[in-house]
Each structure stands twice: as structure tokens, then as C-alpha cells.
Amino acid sequence: MAEISSSLLDRSRTVAGPGYNRWLVPPAALAIHLAIGQAYAFSVFKKPLGALLSGDVDHPAAGDWTAGQIGWIFSIAIVLLGLSAAIFGKWLERVGPRKAMLAAALCFGGGFLLAALGVRLHSLALVYFGYGVVGGIGLGIGYISPVSTLIKWFPDRKGVATGMAIMGFGGGAMIGSPLAVALMARFNDVAPQGVAPTFIAMGFLYFLFMQFGVWTIRVPADDWAPAGYVPNQEHSALITDRNVSADNAIKTPQFWLLWVVLLCNVTAGIGVLETASPLIQETFSDKVLGAGRGVTVAAAAGFVGLLSLFNLLGRFFWSSASDKLGRKVTYALYFGLGMVLYALVPTLGHNAQLTLFVVVACLIISMYGGGFATIPAYLSDLFGKYQVGAIHGRLLTAWSTAGVLGPLIVNWLSEGRKAEGLKGAAAYQPVFYTMAGLLVVGLLANFAVTPVNEKYAEQGPVTPEAGGH
Amino acid sequence: MNSHTDSSPPSAPAEASAGGSVMLAWLFVGVPLAWGVFQTFIKALALFR
């Protein structure tokens, strides 16, 4: 039995036959990303997890977990996402996407089950280990599992293909949040806050949903290409027809420049996401707009929802646009336009321009999402498709770094201003100016990207099976 | 560079079957995504009230 399962999962068993339609690959990838994107909705568990003993979210008991302690669950998961993507990238290239997706489903689903046990026993360490460590490994493997396969199926539309999958990560939170709320309400009578049974249900549901991706995904034959496809039709020096291994890629300055590019883009985006709700409420309060006209808590939640929508749309729109504009130009646009928009935010706040403020924030977040979705295609342009999944995995350590750095910068800058008695736009002004400065760094790093020196390229033909050597 | 392409025309029943699979696959992921987007959109409407 084990032998049969193993052979069914082998890369060789996933090579597509002649009649396979490549448009089946994006939904397979989406099934994985829509599931693991749930991580971005983890905040929905914050209050219930903090009231497991008291049973009242507004009045936690002495032994209840604090918001700070609970916040670490998500942070650990994001750090593990980056680390596991970096560590398992080469393994994934060797064994193929099916085995990797199954591993991701087992870790992500299993992480929920371990976390449920942690909640049941009120052991925070077990929740950290379950959702944070095991689930985080599932996030990392799952995130990169379809990337190189998509790029191989869509060499003519790399941005569109990876944009569709990575859009799923943005969409996952939109499904995960209302689903968790509904399940907790359903199980509220069964267990404290309904959290443990919700974790169990979500673990099984997501595991099953991910199976669609596991069994639908196929890799193209080595000599396959779309009809009429001519490699590097754009004749861009930044699009290589050579292949660089993951081990060699990290020796190139281009890899580290893109690492800085991703770090700056994500850190700046986190600046908006972290402050979105308090920023809009404090900046456009009743005092500013007039009694009864200020932004309420519900409206602020609506603003956060709107940002999620633009995060999702930006992933697909900008990544697809990069197929036409070129990756370097697209990132120059993210940083150049982003810089102006970030610097505008405090001014719009001071002038009480609510509509413009919302439009600018949505544009900023669309480019934040676009930055995530465009990076795999940029890597494929520079390093070839040979081990692009593994290279992407290593680059995601920039995301982990930004996940820690972003909130630190935001809290340090805004809390300092608030301690001085400043409120609203004034309190967040340094945050946005600092983020605009970060985008200048990203812009310079992007400008410095040049074609990779040929000495790093593999000599002779490369095979996926050699990925782990 | 590549000798094997998808340029050979598939037979009509094979094409219809492939098209059906693609549609079902997109529905499988599209329906939950559309539900999530709808829920978020409803929430976002509060901003404009």
C-alpha cells in the first residue's frame, strides 16, 4: 500500500499526457493557496483564545492568554513559512508538486489538530507548536509548491499564472475569517468559545480541500511548450534562457537585490495593514468630520475588508500587467508611485480627505499584493525555470523578516508619537514617511538589478530530478 | 528548442471533456472564493454608509 501511494505521488507519475489542459493547473494551485491563506485570518481567533478560561471576551480571567502571547502564534507561523520554504525548496523541485502539496496539506491540517489539543489542554506551547511550527511548515511548502509548475506550464504568461495562484493566498483570508466565525458560533456550546472544535473542523476541511490540488496537479513533459511559443520574444536582457540552481542563485547579487526589493515592499505594506483600523478611526473621527460623521468601528472594519479585496485584486492585476510591462518596470512603478502615495497619506489625513484617503490606501495595498505575486516571474526571468520554486522559497525569508520588522517599526514610531500626546494622522505621520523612505531603498535595489552573470548558470541540460543534488 | 507542443488538435469529444473538467475545476475553487469576496464586500459596504 505504502509502495502504491509513494508511486502515485512520484514526479514521474504526475507528468501530463497529451490531452491535459494546462488551465487545470491554476485551480489546483488555488486550492492550496486558498486553504493556506487562512493564516491571514488568524486574528479572528485572538479574542476567543484570550477568554478560554473566563468565557467572556471582554473580561479575561487571570490565567487567560494575553493578546501579546496569542500574537506570537501568527508570528511563529510566518517565520516558519519563510524558513520551511527556504529549506524544503530543493526537495520540492526533486519530488515534484504532488508530494509537496500532500506534505503541505498534512502539516497545515495536522497543525490545526495539534493546536486544538493545545486549546483543550490550555497549553500555549502546544498551540505554538501546532499552528505555529507544524502549520507554518505547511504554509511554506504549500506556498511554493505550485510556483515552478505554473511557470513551466505558462512560460508565455508567467505573471498571469503565478498571479492567479498567489491571489488565492489573499483570498484565503476572506474565506477563513467568516468560516471561523460561523464555526465558533456553531460550536460555542460544545467547548469554550468553540475554538477547539473549530480548529478540528478546519483542519479536516482544509486537508480535504487541498486534496483537490494534490490530485489535479500535473507537471509538463520536459520538452513541452505552448503552441506557437517563442522563448524570450521580448528580447529582454533580463530574461534568460539559461538555468541557475538555487545554490548558485544565492551567490548572485541579483538574488539579494530582489531580497531587499521584497523586504521593502512587504514591510511598507505591513505599515498600512497594521495601522489601517486605528488610523482611519483616529484620523477621521467625529472631531474631524463633525458629530455623527466620523468613521465608526464597523466602518473601519469595512475599510480593512476593502483593503483585503484590493490586496487580492492587485495580486492578479499587477502580476498580469508585468507580463506586458516587464518585471523591472512593474517594480519601479510599485516603488515610484508607492513612494508618492505613502507620503500623501498623512496630508490627506490632515485635510480630512476621506474618499481620497481610501482610494490611496487601496492603491497602496494593491501594489503590496502585486509585489508578492510578481516576484516568482521576476526570479524565473533572471534565473530560469530550473529551480525557481527553490529560489523563491529562499527569497521568502525576506517576508519572514518583514513580518517581524514591519510591526516593530510601526509600533515603535506610532506609540512614541502617541506618548507625546499626538493623535490621528499626526501620530502615524512618521510611519508613512519611513515607509516611503523604505520604498526609495527598494527602488534603488530594483534599479541595480542586471542580468545574472553566465558563470552561475548550469552547464548542459538540467532535469527536475536533479533538483536536490 | 521544444519538440513536444500542444499544437496537435485534440478530437472534439476529448476537447469537450477537457473543457468540462476545466470548468468544474474552476467552479470548485471559484465558488468558495466568490463567497469569501462577497462576505468581504458586504463588510466593506459599512464604510460607505
TrEMBL record, chain A:
InterPro entries: MFS (IPR011701), MFS_dom (IPR020846), MFS_Riboflavin_Transporter (IPR052983), MFS_trans_sf (IPR036259). SUPFAM superfamilies: MFS general substrate transporter. The keyword Transit peptide does not apply. It holds the Pfam family MFS_1. CDD domains: MFS_OFA_like (cd17353). It is found in: Membrane. Keywords: Membrane, Transmembrane, Transmembrane helix, Transport. It is a multi-pass membrane protein. This is OFA family MFS transporter. It comes from Hymenobacter armeniacus.
TrEMBL record, chain B:
The keyword Membrane applies. The chain crosses the membrane at residues 23-48. Keywords: Membrane, Transmembrane, Transmembrane helix. It comes from the Bacteria. This is Oxalate:formate antiporter.
